[in-house]
Structure formats: C-alpha cells, structure tokens
C-alpha cells in the first residue's frame, strides 16, 4: 500500500455544516473529522469559518470556536451585526432558507425583485416566505436613472466614442499569407 501524499486543506462553512448535520440528525465530532482527513492524505490546514455577534459578552458558539482554535483548526470569524429589517435584492429561490432563518431570529424581511417580467424574476417560494415583497417596478421612478440627465451630461462632457482597434473588423480584403514574416 503506497503512502498517502495528497495534500488536503479543509474549508468549513461552520453554520452550513451545523445546519446540514442537524437536519440529518447527528452532531459533528470535529476531532474525528480531522482524523478522517488526516487518514486520507497530508492535511495541511483546516479552516473553520463562522460569524460571531459583535459586542456580545457571551456567545453559545464561543466554547466551540475556542476548542477548534486550540485543536488544530484555523478559525476565521466575521463580526455580525443585528438588524431589525433585512432587505434582500434578489428573486432567487435559493435564498428562501436564508430568509426563513433570519425571520426565526425576529428579523423582518423585504424581498425586492419583480414579477412583471415573463417569466417572473422572483421565485414564488421566496415571495411567499418574505414578510414584504416589493416589486422593483414600484421603485423605478425613485431609483432609476433619468434618461434626460444622462443625455445632458453627455452633451456637457462629450466623450470620444470609438471601438477599440482590436474589436474593429477590417474592411480591407486579406491577402493569403498577409501579415506573416
């Protein structure tokens, strides 16, 4: 049996791994996780990414973060801030579970997208999950650029508009072998 020489680095999204294991009905043993990947090759590093709530004296995740840091993981934390209202500019249905998760924490969620296109840009499951759905068409008068303003700016500051040479098509007929040395 040949020695395992494959170099391995682990990149763990802590919240996602926790939620995945919980939904499957088990807890992660992080010591065994390291051992498993040590057995598969040369484990260079194990990164564990997580968020911690800013200005909180105690966090329930702090003991785990400290243990991981002491036992071979490189813990990368990002401070989070608490919000009362989250506004998500997306219609992607993949965000439904994120919206549900922040709602469980008491955050009100507004989703900004549109159903005015064919097909609609906002997934039904995301619209139904949101506390408020705001069609971006309603915001257009407030956030859309005024075409007259752009025309006036271009008149004040005329720019030389040209196609870069490398994008221009040659109109001269090419001779066979032209351009060769």
Low-confidence stretches: none
**Main sheet record:** 3 strands, parallel
Q: Class by helix and strand content?
A: alpha/beta
Q: Termini distance? A: 56 Å
Q: How are helices and strands ordered from N to C?
A: EHHEHEEHEHEHH
Dominant shape: extended
Average pLDDT: 83
Task: State the strand order across the main sheet.
Answer: 1-2-3
Number of strands: 6
Helix content: 25-40%
Q: Give the domain tally.
A: 2
Q: Whole-number radius of gyration?
A: 27 Å
Quickly count the helices: 7
Please state roughly what percent of the residues sit in beta strands, choosing from under 5%, 5-15%, 15-25%, 25-35%, 35-45% or over 45%: 15-25%
Features:
2 domains, 7 helices, extended, 6 strands, Rossmann fold, single chain, 181 residues, three-stranded parallel β-sheet, alpha/beta
Describe the structure.
The chain is α/β, with parallel strands linked by helices and 181 residues long. It is built from 7 helices and 6 strands. It has helices at residues 14-24, 30-38, 62-70, 96-104, 124-129, 136-143, 147-156, and strands at residues 7-13, 42-53, 74-80, 85-89, 108-113, 132-135. A 3-stranded parallel beta sheet has the order 1-2-3. The protein is extended.
């Amino acid at each position: 049996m040949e020695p395992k020489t494959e170099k391995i680095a682990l990149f763990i999204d802590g919240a996602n791994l926790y939620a995945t294991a919980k939904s499957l009905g088990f807890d992660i043993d992080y010591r065994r996780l390291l051992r498993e990947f040590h057995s598969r090759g040369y484990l260079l590093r194990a990164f564990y990414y997580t968020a911690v709530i800013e200005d909180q004296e105690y966090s329930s995740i702090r003991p785990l973060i400290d243990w991981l840091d002491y036992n071979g993981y490189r813990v990368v934390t990002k401070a989070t801030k608490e919000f009362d209202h989250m506004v998500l500019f997306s219609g992607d249905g993949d965000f439904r579970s994120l919206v549900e998760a922040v709602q469980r924490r008491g955050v009100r969620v507004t989703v900004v997208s549109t159903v005015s296109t064919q097909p609609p840009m906002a997934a039904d499951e995301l619209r139904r999950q949101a506390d408020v759905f705001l069609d971006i068409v309603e915001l257009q008068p407030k956030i859309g650029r005024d075409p007259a303003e752009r025309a006036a700016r271009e008149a004040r500051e005329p720019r030389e508009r040209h196609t870069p040479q490398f994008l221009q098509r040659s109109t001269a007929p090419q001779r066979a072998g032209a351009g060769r040395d």
